[in-house]
UniProtKB/TrEMBL annotation:
<feature type="transmembrane region" description="Helical">
    <location>
        <begin position="488"/>
        <end position="515"/>
    </location>
</feature>
<dbReference type="InterPro" id="IPR013783">
    <property type="entry name" value="Ig-like_fold"/>
</dbReference>
<keyword id="KW-1133">Transmembrane helix</keyword>
<protein>
    <recommendedName>
        <fullName>Ig-like domain-containing protein</fullName>
    </recommendedName>
</protein>
<keyword id="KW-0472">Membrane</keyword>
<dbReference type="InterPro" id="IPR036116">
    <property type="entry name" value="FN3_sf"/>
</dbReference>
<keyword id="KW-0732">Signal</keyword>
<keyword id="KW-0812">Transmembrane</keyword>
<feature type="signal peptide">
    <location>
        <begin position="1"/>
        <end position="16"/>
    </location>
</feature>
């Protein structure tokens, strides 16, 4: 660049020259610290100069900034020149203003430009995580601000166990995790953003691994005591599990099936050694296993069906759920066995401490809606020998009858195979087989299945039992009620046909008689008229007409309905 003295002389000489003109103005520059920014000013001019922060580069104010200038003649005939200003990207030069002046006479300024320098990046913010699964953790965060055109080159993510000093370094936001290694320890994570300057400010994040609560061996215990049925829900917890896997809260949702009622019991667990609820107790099964017991007896009614959903929740909000189904009947199970050829035996199981003396069984034939009943003692079994082969619904009641209660257990569509077969019943009430005259007695059974629920109704049927090994006469084996129904329909159709035939015949005869009667009356009227006008012996003629000649044709003038024959 020209010295200031030479610059003044050139300004005086340029007064009569053509005005200077810009080909290119300098532009603002964003640059990474440590690099060098170059500003370009191209113009047709005799001379030029730069101002940095409104001062010449040689000014004391700009001392130490390391500014340099350079001029290159591009075309001498038009005085086209390229003027360069170079400024190192050091913190001192950040945000300085640059302007180029050209002249052939009066000086002409360029557009104002600025130098912005991107230094070390600030730290990332809002670090959080998402547990993708048990072996992968995804970090999320907000990047630090950076100048336009100066990108963040990469991120580094380091993590280390708090009890060690060795860091694992990478740049993948998906971190591998091993619950077996880190479950009992917190993980220290450090995230850094990088650019041309180097690493940015770090941001540390501490993560505690929380898995689904560790519970196992869920079971339900029912017993009977003086105050009624006791129901206990058991679950076991590994006491050696890390904090993340230990449940911090327990809730039990109890649902009464028939009325669709719902009750929730919720408790906090403290250190897996005590709880906030009197219904929940915790005891050590061994050095490493705790047993959690929930007594829900006070929330239940006798003779109902329930589900209980137990939910364990840990500090992270993860849950482990277990659903159990049970009833508050004193009967827990019933077994139906085929003992011998025709003996179907039933035994009932009861909860400990039951006060029942036995159970009451109702067999309902699903095809014929007939029922058989059986009283079963508390110990042992009892058998029924009169069941047909077929499919049955079996209802098991508490006590000695089915009155006023719903069944404790229902076994649907149970196939029972015996040697007893069902046959058609004759009008005399005696069943006969085609090969023998053995007599089989008709047995009438009437039982009330349930008086407390509309879904179980009273059933009264007359059934006939026959042993298939005893041949009888006048009946086809395998006969059914369908054959009897067909016969009855044929008889009814025959009787209706006879009635219709008699009705039609009577209508025809009645019409015939009415026609003949009208003809007779007309003849008599004509005879009377003729007698009064033209015949002297009218009385004789009238008597003749009413006399014997009509008696010989009584079937023509007199009409009566024929009586039906006895046949």
């Amino acid at each position: 660049m020209l010295s200031f003295a030479v610059l003044l002389s050139l300004l005086r000489l340029s007064a009569s020259v053509h005005p200077a003109e810009f080909e290119a103005h300098p532009h603002s520059v964003n640059i990474t610290q440590g690099q060098t920014a170059t500003f370009n000013c191209t113009a047709h001019s005799i001379g030029s100069y730069w101002l940095v922060n409104d001062r010449l580069p040689e000014h004391d104010y700009n001392s130490g900034r390391g500014i340099t200038t350079d001029d290159t003649v591009l075309e001498s005939s038009t005085n086209l020149k390229e003027h360069l200003l170079k400024i190192p990207a050091i913190p001192l030069n950040n945000n300085v203003t640059i302007q180029c002046f050209i002249f052939n006479g009066p000086a002409i300024p360029s557009n104002l430009s600025r130098l912005l320098i991107q230094g070390r990046l600030n730290s990332v913010t809002n670090i959080d995580h998402i547990e993708l699964n048990k072996t992968a953790l995804l970090l999320t965060f907000t990047p630090p601000a950076t100048l336009l055109g100066v990108p963040i080159s990469n991120y580094s993510i380091e993590f280390v166990d708090k009890n060690t000093t060795q860091w694992t370094v990478g740049n993948n936001p998906v971190l591998p995790i091993q619950p077996s290694d880190y479950c009992t320890k917190q993980i220290m994570i450090k995230v850094l953003a990088w650019n041309g300057v180097g690493e940015g400010e770090p941001n540390n994040y501490t993560y505690t691994l929380h898995e689904v609560p560790s519970t196992f061996s869920h079971n339900t215990d029912l017993s009977y005591a003086a105050n009624g049925i006791n129901v206990l829900l058991y679950s076991k917890i590994n006491n050696t599990d890390c904090i993340g896997k230990r449940p911090a809260r327990l809730s039990t949702v109890i649902k009464r099936k028939q009325q669709n009622q719902e009750t929730t019991l919720s408790c906090y667990l403290y250190d897996i050694s005590n709880s906030s609820c009197s219904e929940v107790s915790i005891a050590a099964v061994s050095d490493s296993v705790w047993s959690v017991t929930v007594n829900i007896s006070s929330y239940l009614l006798s003779g109902e069906h329930y589900t209980a959903e137990t939910v364990f929740t840990n500090e992270a909000g993860n849950t482990s759920e277990t659903v159990r189904t049970f009833s508050t009947y004193q009967i827990t199970n019933a077994t139906v066995k085929h003992s011998t050829e025709n003996l179907i035996c039933v035994a009932c199981s009861f909860i400990p401490g039951t006060i029942l003396t036995g159970c009451y069984i109702v067999f309902i034939d699903t095809q014929y809606n007939e029922n058989k009943t059986l009283q079963v003692p508390k110990t042992g079994s009892n058998c029924e020998s009169t069941l047909y082969s077929g499919v049955y619904d079996i209802y098991i009641y508490e006590g000695s009858n089915a009155f006023g209660s719903a069944p404790a257990i229902i076994i649907n569509n149970k196939f029972i195979n015996t040697s007893l077969i069902r046959i058609s019943t004759s009008s005399s009430g005696v069943a006969m087989d085609s090969t023998s005259s053995s007599y089989v007695q008709s047995i009438s059974t009437s039982r009330v299945v349930s008086l407390s629920s509309s879904q179980y109704t009273s059933v009264t049927k007359s059934t006939t039992l026959i042993n298939s090994h005893t041949p009888t006469l006048n009946s086809q084996p395998g006969g059914s009620s369908d054959e009897l129904s067909s016969t009855v329909l044929l008889v009814i159709a025959f009787v209706v046909g006879i009635i219709l035939t008699l009705t039609i015949t009577s209508v025809i005869l009645l019409s015939y008689c009415l026609v003949k009667t009208k003809k007779k009356n007309k003849i008599l009227k004509l005879a009377e008229t003729a007698a009064s006008e033209k015949f002297k012996h009218a009385d004789v003629l009238l008597q003749t007409l009413k006399g014997t000649s009509f008696k010989t044709h009584s079937s023509y003038l007199s009409c009566s309905l024929p009586s039906p024959s006895p046949s």
